[in-house]
Amino acid sequence: MKKIKNYINGSFQEPIAGDWLDNYNPSTGEIYSHIPKSTSKDVAKAYEAAKDAFVSWSNTTIEERSKILIRIADLIEANLDTLAEAEAKDNGKPLSLAKAVDIPRASANFRFFGNAITQFASEAHESVGLNTMNFTLRSPMGVVGCISPWNLPLYLFTWKVAPAIAAGNCVVAKPSEVTPMTAYLLGEILSEAGLPKGVLNIVHGTGPEAGQAIVAHPNIKAISFTGGTKTGEHIARTAAPMFKKLSLELGGKNPNIIFADCEYEKMLAVTVKSSFANQGQICLCGSRIYVEESIAKQFKKDFVAKVAALYIGNPFNSKTSIGALVSQEHLEKVESYIEIAKDEGAKILYGGERVSVKGFENGYYLQPSVIEVDDNKCRIQQEEVFGPVVTIMTFKNEEEALQLANDVKYGLSATVWTNNLDRTMRLSKQLEAGIVWVNTWLNRDLRTPFGGMKDSGVGREGGFEALRFFTEPKNVCISYNL
Ligand code: NDP
């Protein structure tokens, strides 16, 4: 059986304690590899390697750093098929999605930050009359920690590590134990691209053990984390008393607000995607649909028809739009929410049943579920399910739509479908979300700030925001004589 290993100091290493975890293929329900059950000892070893690499890496020219990052991007692109197949097998997502989105985006992350670092500049402030010149020196932090989730494994892992190393830091990173494979394969690419040893160290293992050891390590200066809100809270509690810099990208329960004046067919096609892409396991999925009363009946009919036509199958079948959920445990969690919705009196308009896929009978397949609700306070409206479950509620006017949309603890993203420009501007300002999409969804320009409000997180990633996070600003004030 395949053994995934830690990538520390430029080489693959077994866990010090010699303990391993099982890694499941969600499309078959079978164990297909073992991964290190790393402990604080492995994290300490990774930290030492990162620390030793820091002086040299932080003094490497911007051109050289940029060149290496772009080489990594090229190698990810050259290995598209292998990486996409590994991602589909490890996560259960359709291979077509991994090929079109996950792996190209992982490559784009390295290419983007390889270029962005050549343009990263700081400000200067001349205090006229006082004869002083201030400038902001931005230095890499040292050794930083990056922790990523299982839903977009290589995509989100690279979204963190690429800006961290571009800015001159060295990294101890942990991918999710549920989907470790592509981060493991990245190790080979890093060596081939000539990334100096110790600059990026990848430690596998559980969140409470290996992840916690990264967060609690006294000399790891910053933590960039993407994952659940509860885990984020725990991380903040550990890191805050140590005064670590924190970027937390957490859960979402995003509204998708549909007005009668929208471009209906486009809205319908995109709403199917924003509800169920990646089996609904994207933090940005529009899991709460609010539709204007006048078109609600037609919308429900058309939407359910489109959802019912989605092909549920194994990730490697080219017809598949809905693959397997990531794990047995997650499948059971999603099913429990469907039961909660039923208990709360919600109406199941479609789906919610397990699916047996021929030849893959033990995989974790679930029909996409469309649930009609009339109470915005019920749990299915308020809590993140993070699966193929979408709710529909109607509204009478813009004011009510806004009130319903903002009435949750989360504030990650929101989508609005309308052709009214004034309404677009009003809602863009008033929606409590870090990202507002109007007449589109998941449209990303990597230069924009990315992150959430309220319980969806603290801080922003993307563009220069990420490079600012991974650097320490220092004000230098020089007095001069004229
Ligand atoms: P988790 O919070 O369970 O895990 C995220 C990562 O943190 C994993 O690597 C996990 O390891 C690790 N971890 C768990 N416990 C600890 C700990 N005590 N200390 C340090 N690290 C820990 O999230 P999921 O993997 O289940 O991902 C789903 C969640 O991620 C959803 O809530 C989703 O909304 C959110 N998300 C947010 C995004 C955003 O940009 N805002 C984007 C994508 C997802 P292990 O896997 O071993 O448990």
List the keywords.
alpha/beta; 482 residues; 7-stranded mixed beta sheet; 15 helices; binds NADPH dihydro-nicotinamide-adenine-dinucleotide phosphate; 40% helix
Give a structural overview:
The chain has helices spanning 40-58, 62-78, 80-91, 95-119, 153-166, 181-192, 207-216, 229-239, 264-276, 293-308, 328-343, 379-382, 398-406, 421-430, 463-469, and strands spanning 2-3, 6-8, 11-13, 20-25, 30-36, 124-127, 132-140, 143-147, 170-174, 200-202, 222-226, 245-249, 255-258, 288-292, 347-350, 369-372, 389-395, 410-411, 413-417, 435-438, 453-454, 457-458, 471-479. The N and C termini lie far apart (73 Å). It has 482 residues and is an alpha/beta fold. Bound molecules: NADPH dihydro-nicotinamide-adenine-dinucleotide phosphate. NADPH dihydro-nicotinamide-adenine-dinucleotide phosphate (NDP) binds at residues 147-151, 156, 174, 176-178, 206-208, 211-212, 215, 226-228, 231, 234-235, 249-252, 283, 384, 386, 412, 452, 456-457.
